[in-house]
């Protein structure tokens, strides 16, 4: 019989996401990442710690001395960016993402009223889950991060027919359209969409995402680009905003997403 006496089990069967979660708490991350300005820091903390009942008064107080756009970008969005970082590092999970997003949206709604003409948008994107696919959690998280980054998101929901997604893309002419597929049986929707988009004369990048999709598949059809996880989506979006087409996104993908 094999003896296990003296075996150090800490070196095996280790869940590194839990190890990281224990290594850095949200409070510890906040010390390094929160804005230095005490007014913006107070607002960002309300988002980071999901204080949706307190964010309104904090934003109102900030608006007494700060520009409303700065309150949004340097306070509310800054807090959400920390949430995104903690999510990427498996410190925060879906419930925290959604509650923080709700907190941020409450604050933005208040601050936007003080912006003459309303808050401008960087661009419009379309997001959907593939035809036949009922899974939309990943899409929802990416949509939150895109809105936090200043984009207008048209969320078509889940199980969106190919023709409906393409029709909306023709109508809106977005910066890009993204689709998520968690099942291998539904990811074939993306090349079908790309074909119809090209037939309509569109050169709009079509971002493939979700558990069933990998980079090789997303690059296998024209217009296709890839986002492996939600925090990469705003980074890729910025490059498209800077003038990158789908071919250049593919060529420079590793440099664009870096360690994100």
From TrEMBL:
Residues covered by the B12-binding N-terminal domain: 30-123
UniProt keyword terms in alphabetical order: Cobalt, Metal-binding, Methyltransferase, Transferase
Record PROSITE patterns: B12_BINDING, B12_BINDING_NTER
InterPro entries per record: Cbl-bd_cap, Cobalamin-bd, Cobalamin-bd_sf, Met_Synthase/Corrinoid, Meth_synthase_dom
BP GO annotations: homocysteine metabolic process; methylation; tetrahydrofolate metabolic process
A GO cellular component entry from the record: cytosol
Gene Ontology terms for molecular function: cobalamin binding; metal ion binding; methionine synthase activity
Domain B12-binding, first and last residues per copy: 122-247
Name under which the protein is recorded: Methanol methyltransferase corrinoid protein
Organism per entry: Methanomethylophilus alvi (strain Mx1201)
Organism lineage string: Archaea, Methanobacteriati, Thermoplasmatota, Thermoplasmata, Methanomassiliicoccales
